[in-house]
Amino acid sequence: MEKWEYFTAPLLIHNTKQILDTFGEDGWELVTVLPGQNSEQLVAYFKRKKES
Predict the structure, then answer these.
(1) How far apart are the first and last CA of the chain?
(2) What is the C-alpha separation between 18 and 13, in angstroms, rounded?
(3) What distance in Å separates the CA atoms of residue 50 and residue 46, rounded to the nearest whole number?
(4) Taking the model in full, what pTM does it have?
(5) CA distance 23 to 3
(6) 11 with 21: CB under 8 angstroms?
(7) Could you give the strand order of the β-sheet that contains 29-35, starting from the edge strand earlier in sequence?
(8) What DSSP string runs through 1-52?
(9) How do residues 8-34 score in pLDDT, each as one tens digit?
């Protein structure tokens, strides 16, 4: 059975690609992006397989 770990991170709209690329290089898969507390911020939700 596969096990997953999850992570949330603030995402600034002026630097989105660099932030997402960094998490992708660390093995995180983007699940969704939702609005944050203000119009300049988003929240990204990631998952990756948990290491045994």
Answers:
(1) 11
(2) 10
(3) 12
(4) 0.83
(5) 19
(6) no
(7) 4-12, 41-49, 29-35
(8) ---EEEEEEEEETTSHHHHHHHHHHTTPEEEEEEE-SSTTEEEEEEEEEPP-
(9) 999 887 888 998 999 999 999 999 999
